[in-house]
Specification:
The complex is a heterodimer of chains A (about 50) and B (about 300). Chain A is mainly alpha-helical and about 50 residues long. Chain A has 3 helices and no strands. By secondary structure, chain B is mainly beta. Chain B has a domain at about 245-310. Chain B is about 5% helix and about 35% strand. Chain B has 2 helices and 22 strands. Chain B has helices at about 110-115, 260-275, and strands at about 1-10, 15-20, 35, 40, 45-50, 60-65, 70-75, 80-85, 90-95, 130-140, 145-150, 165, 170, 175-180, 190-195, 200-205, 210-215, 225-230, 245, 280, 285, 305. In chain B, the strands form 5 sheets. Chain B has an 8-stranded mixed beta sheet, with no helix packed on it. In chain B, strands 2, 3, 6, 7 and 8 form a 5-stranded antiparallel beta sheet that branches. The chains are: A mainly alpha (about 50), B mainly beta (about 300). At the A-B interface, helix 1, helix 2 and helix 3 of A face loops of B.
Chain lengths: ~50, ~300
């Protein structure tokens, strides 16, 4: 599942932040597991609260 | 209808064979109510019962080995033994064998049966003859353009003429069946199974064993004898397919969030399918979060029954 399928963030600032991070992480030469993990969890909790 | 089944099982002292079936007379699929078979020598076990035909016309049943009143061994039941199209007033005599795990179990997996070898199914057999002999055999590895056939020393089996072999029915694939009019049979029957390519009209492979034989079954009027639980023996080359092995996290796409996820897996599956590959192997996708650092490994999953959170 891509994050968007869990639900989109209504807060525009947050949405913009995650989309920026997504581009950065996807552009990395090597996967950054820990950063992905941290950001995904942030996203989960924000979407869940929403 | 009357059901008479027979199975050979060399029991030890204190063991007995019971049968449980989908009809109330045979325990209604409840193993606790399984019906004991009788034997005089501890080898040949028989069961006989009058049964009212269920609405579906089908009766499923399996054998269980009991010791001191407890079930200790069950049959491999991925493809249950079924008598189809049961009718009132008919006696069904079944010559069964104990079903253990089959040789080359891969070919009985749902991946193989439903996906790789999905073939055209025939309609189920309906009992057509007053005196009838049904032969059932498992043969999963037949191929899409081929059918399993039977050839033998009978008119109905083509008298070993390859132009006149009898095609078998695959309604219960991977089991194939043929029904013969017992009135025209001359015992002993000798026969073999073979794979026949219907597209090129040619024999692909004969069974590489001695002829199979059936001695006089003395099939009476209004009686159907069923010989089942056979396995066809073909000396086929090793089954080879191409595929890809890749961990899900490596499938990063523009839509991912830093690592490959389950959506990317779908893309990968489409590509595998379009390039005619047959297998996609991935690393474990169980939940791994223990420390949330690089030391977490997919090979020491935290929860075996949870999927990796990161892949979502």
């Amino acid at each position: 599942m891509s994050l968007g399928k869990l639900g989109l963030l209504r807060n525009k600032k947050q949405a913009e932040y995650f989309s920026q991070k997504q581009k950065e992480l996807n552009a990395l030469k090597q996967l950054d597991y820990e950063a992905v993990n941290k950001l995904k969890w942030e996203y989960f909790s924000l979407v869940f609260k929403q | 209808m009357t059901l008479v089944t027979q199975i050979e099982y060399r029991t030890s002292w204190g063991e007995e064979i019971r049968v449980v079936g989908s009809v109330p007379e045979m325990g209604g699929s409840d193993i606790v109510k399984a019906c004991p078979l009788t034997t005089s020598d501890g080898v040949i076990w028989t069961f006989s019962k009058d049964i009212s035909v269920p609405a579906s016309g089908n009766i499923e049943y399996r054998y269980i080995l009991f010791k001191s009143g407890m079930p200790v061994r069950k049959e491999w039941n991925a493809f249950p033994r079924v008598i189809t199209g049961c009718k009132n007033g008919i006696t069904y005599r079944c010559r069964d064998s104990w079903k253990g795990l089959p040789p080359q179990q891969l070919f009985f997996s749902s991946a193989y049966i439903d996906c790789w070898s999905r073939c055209k199914m025939s309609k189920p057999v309906t009992h057509r003859y007053n005196r009838s002999l049904i032969i059932k055999v498992y043969a999963p590895r037949i191929g899409k353009e081929c059918v399993l056939c039977i050839s033998g020393n009978q008119d109905s089996l083509g008298n070993w003429d390859i132009q006149k072999v009898a095609k078998m029915n695959n309604a219960a694939f991977p089991e194939w069946t043929v029904e013969l009019n017992a009135a025209n049979l001359i015992f002993p029957i000798e026969y073999k199974f073979l794979i026949y390519n219907t597209k090129n009209d040619e024999v692909v492979e004969w069974e590489n064993t001695y002829n199979r034989t059936i001695n006089d079954l003395q099939i009476k009027s209004k009686e159907t004898v069923c010989i089942s639980d056979l396995y066809a023996n073909f000396n086929l080359p090793l089954w080879k397919v191409a595929g890809t092995a890749i961990p899900v996290f490596s499938l990063r796409s523009n839509e991912s969030f830093g690592i490959g996820d389950f959506d990317d897996l779908k893309k990968m599956i489409s590509w595998v399918s379009r390039t005619d590959q047959k297998i996609l192997q991935i690393l474990p996708i169980n939940d791994t979060s223990i420390t949330n650092t690089w030391t977490d490994s997919i090979h020491i999953p935290q929860y075996r029954y949870m999927l990796c959170i990161l892949c979502t």
